[in-house]
Amino acid sequence: MNTWKVKKNSGFTVMELMIVMVIVAILAALAYPSYIQYVRKSKRGEAQQLLMNWSINQEIWRSNNTTYATAAQLPVPINDNYNFDLSVAPTATTYTLRAVAQNDQVNDVSKEGDSCTNMTLNQSGVKGDEATCWD
Question: pTM of the full predicted structure?
Fold first, then answer.
């Protein structure tokens, strides 16, 4: 008679767990930069939307008044990642709205590698030199 009992272990060894942890760490290290850039791009899109809404409000103001509104007359958008201002004082026929990145958003770049720290929009809907940031 065979009196030897085969002991069956269930579960994972420490080596197997370490291998899985290394694989997960490598995947996370590869995915994290893409995730961060995606978050920055979505915050940039939010700032663009705020600029366009502000532009529409300027046009509404102009239709009711003889000039475009100053920052004191028309509320400036508020955002945690961008500061909004009028880069030049508005006149009866022109204005230029600007969003300046702050916090981590200053590291935002477009697909082409251009810096997206400043975005401008004027009364004609023309975007500033950073037009690649609007894509």
Answer: 0.79
Q: State the amino acid at position 122 in one-letter form.
A: N
Gap between the Cα atoms of 29 and 31, Å rounded: 6
For residue 33 the two structure tokens come to 């930069």
Q: Quick count: other Cβ atoms within 10 Å of Cβ 40? A: 19
What's the CATH number where 91 sits?
A: 3.30.700.10
d(CA 105, CA 56): 25
Would 4 be classed as within a structural domain?
no
117 close to 106: Cβ distance less than 8 angstroms: yes
Query: Residue 67 is which amino acid?
Result: T
Report the number of distinct structural domains present in the chain. Answer: 1
Predicted confidence (pLDDT) at residue 3 exceeds the cutoff of 70: no
Q: Are 97 and 120 in contact (CB under 8 A)?
A: yes
